[in-house]
Amino acid sequence: MAISHLSSGQVCPLLPSSVAIDNLQSIALFKDPHLEVIRMILPVGKSIPPHHVRGAMTIQCLIGEVLSKTDQQEQVLRTGDLQYLAGGVEHQLHANQDSALLVTICLLS
Fold first, then answer.
1. pTM of this prediction?
2. This protein's superkingdom (predicted)?
3. Model confidence over 27-64: pLDDT tens digits?
4. Which of 36, 81, 94, 106 could crosslink 55 through cysteines, CB 3.0-4.6 Å?
5. Looking at 10-98, which runs of residues are DSSP E strands?
């Protein structure tokens, strides 16, 4: 079953208080021609392999702790931290704790 995206003006909880993080799924909240927003759930120990996207992006740690690696640096993102990555920057993620991220990607034509 496909998960429907948010419509303009619609509100959704990023981390519902009644649901444990280990019961949440990663979902694309919405996508339009210029922007995609994803709630990414990473259980402790899970990694996202090296990859890149064409457009600029941000990774916001909503809860937990994630190691973010690029060719240039390693950064630990903790609850409340935001990281900006320019378009084309190869990066990878590793969850040091059960984590929820808000990933925003600028889509290029």
1. 0.90
2. Bacteria
3. 999 999 999 999 999 999 999 999 999 999 999 999 99
4. 106
5. 27-31, 35-42, 47-51, 57-63, 65-70, 74-78, 82-85, 91-95
What CATH architecture applies to the domain 33-106? Sandwich (2.60)
Q: Which of 17, 18, 14, 10 is nearest to 26 (CA)?
A: 14
Contact 68, 59 (CB under 8 A): yes
Amino acid (one-letter) located at 13 = P
Indicate the domain borders of the chain: 33-106
**CB-based contact 107:37 (threshold 8 Å):** no
Q: Parallel, antiparallel, or unpaired: how do β-strands 99-106 and 35-42 relate?
A: antiparallel
pLDDT at 88 over 50: yes
The string of DSSP letters for 41-65 reads EE-TT-EEEEE--SS-EEEEEEESE
